[in-house]
Structures
1.
Amino acid sequence: MTVPSRPTVSAQPGFRPTVVEAGLVQLANNEVPDGPLPTAARALAAATTGVNRYPDPTAAGLVDRLADHLGVPAGRVVVGDGSVSLCQQLLQALCGPGDEVVSGAPSFELYPVLSRAAGAEPRPVALAPGHTLDLDAMATAVTPATRVVFVCNPNNPTGTTVDRADLERFLATVPDRVLVVLDEAYRDFVDDPEVPDGAVLARSRGNVAVLRTFSKGYGLAGLRVGYGVFPTPVADAVRRLALPYAVNTLAQTAALASLDAGDELRDRCRRIGRERDRVRAALVGAGFAVPPSQANFLWLPVGDRAEALAAHCRRHGVLVRAVPGAGVRVSVGTPAENDAFLRLVRAAEGVLPEPAGS
Ligand code: PMP
């Protein structure tokens, strides 16, 4: 006799983390290759002696600082142990059985997982040619059952973006009762001025939320801290679903210090952006149709050769992320790591099956 779990849980594929082995080059998780920003590293070292105490339960210092930074009232800001937590709380707060959640496909793989966990039905919408979110098709996918639409901008795993005009046109078509979540996990790497700032859009609209994280550009993935800007009633509901003390003391300290290090963040992200563009040019030169990326990763749309390519890289010591049947996502690492990946990809031709249909 086994204890049954809810059918929505037992039917879940769950999150498939990349298994990391010591000594492998890690280009699978969209982390930055260097540590925390220097200012945050110093603050962290000084904060470790205080961890016998529980953290500030409301993370009030961090919330106030973020509200200031974003130009929104503190009541609209919620912090969580990673933005993925806020994603989960948000779906639990808004969705239940019979409700639908629209997103791109492929897009961040946890949208469908967390939607189903909340009892809702994911409605993935195929990307447009060029590997960008198809906002027109996503607008058409909105039905009376839709509660949430995720617009991942830049999109994970493709790195592509939607621009201000297209997003504003899309927002104008979405009914007020549907929350549009602009997931800007990779915003820090964006250098195209046409890519809109979600916080600005959220300020003036009652059905727009923004999710961001300290995991990527700020280099704090291991500490788990992210934040969201929500319409006030949604923020109240999201906050109510948080575990107590979700954001730990070191995460609060490092996040606060990071917000004081804007120049360090910009320098780092500019350097990663240049490296990203160098690696993309090399991949395009090698014959891969890699779309321009505004994130810290690149997308190789190799279709049903994705898993073979990722396995080839792993065998030779480099971890990348395969989206089966669609492509391979590779994060931007150090120049030496990126060169190791480029060498492998150039040598992969002989080991991969022919593309489907060839
Ligand atoms: N959104 C997107 C698009 C992501 O790629 C990720 C992490 N890979 C997250 C949210 C969650 O990030 P975290 O929980 O580390 O803040």
Note: Residues 30, 82-84, 108, 152, 156, 183, 185, 213, 215, 221, 226 surround 4'-deoxy-4'-aminopyridoxal-5'-phosphate (CB under 6 Å).
2.
Amino acid sequence: MLSTDIDALTTTADYTSHVNPQWVRLLNVLQMNVSYEGCEGVELHVAGGRTILDFLSGYCVHNVGHNHPKVIQALKDELDRRGPAMLQSHVPELPGALAKKLCELAGAPYEKVFFASSGSEGVEAAIKFARRCTGRTPLLYADGAFHGLTCGALSLMGNSFWSEKFGPMLPQTDRVRFGDLDALKTQLSRTKYAAFFVEPVQAEAGIRIPDRDYLAETRELCHRYGALLVMDEVQTGMFRTGTFLASHQLGGAADILVLAKALSGGLVPVSATLMTGKVYDSVYDSLKRSIIHTSTFSENGLAMRTGLATLDVLQTENLGARAFEIGDYVRNRLNESIGGFPMVRDIRGLGLLSGIEFQPPKTMAVRALFEAFRTIHPGMFGQVIVMRLFRDWNILTQMCGNNFMVLKVAPPLVVRRDHVDTFVEAITATVELMHSPGEFWSEALGLARRAANV
Ligand code: PLP
């Protein structure tokens, strides 16, 4: 069948048969397998008139909100232009414009950009470039890190869940405690690392924010021992935390910076690896090596146009200031409403990247239930929260990928206070329920049974 009719082309059955049936099963178990008809800003519209509020943003992709009209218009304009695409044989205009803009926004010392299509590819480029520039092989990373799931990026992640049975990973990689300058110094003095990879705020590890001097000292230490500093701002960049880069407020310029996710406007894959002139020139150092690292889809017109339009929206709509303002509102409201509950350990964040950290209950009856479910699956407790918020309150969230006790709160930066109020009402009701041995825990049992049956 050849058809351009989208309804004729797509069914869940086809997806189940030919793509990822386990994903469909998981969404079914969580009662989150709904069909979205249209998405706009923070709102996801489902068949039958139901509206879901997005408090996940596709893991920080939708900073400008879903389907921003200016990003869509930019894409239409690019298509209408009928310009050269994927020639791989000319000097395109848009990558230069986007790279210039990114370097201006990121500031010194970033001068050059390598474009690709995903955060992982950006991290892979950083690995190669750091090795080439320093002439060293070993790589250092922080515990709890999430840098992507390609083999190189995966070699820089301590959580074996992601890498198990895909090995061997890259040799000569070491892990150091995030936020621990003494440990970093010891490690850097022992081995000649090409680079230390770090996220300024570790998103998937549970919205871990380091002390204010950590990143600046890290840079100093790396340079003292001849290693480069690679800052992974794939989730934290693009004004998510209020400033263009989280490292702008946490004080840590790096040698290589990786951006992706929100640069795409939520529509076209793109990543940008920014770096100093010295790093870039060490890689592309002769005519013969002018395309020594590249990828078919890097610098493609749709991605570049989307990036430019997205940056324009982020700036003209002042979404960084908004991230600061609404982010404070989120955490203040959460602290007032749920901060006093025994199972709420911490509420923290920067801008519109927040986390609610839970801890095991203190009362015996509920504690026994908690431990029982944790034995079945460490992620079960968090998934009951996610499921309840979605099913009962029409709010899309997720737990952090490397810390199942932290609920990530990351709505698009265009989120309004009334959206936040709805979220706070929903999580408050959910937190109240989890403190008594009734409904929340019987629901968890139902979830465990359904999971066992699929
Ligand atoms: N780095 C960070 C901090 C991420 O959160 C992710 C993805 O979630 C990546 C890198 C990998 O990006 P991608 O999924 O686009 O390959």
Note: The mean pLDDT is 94.
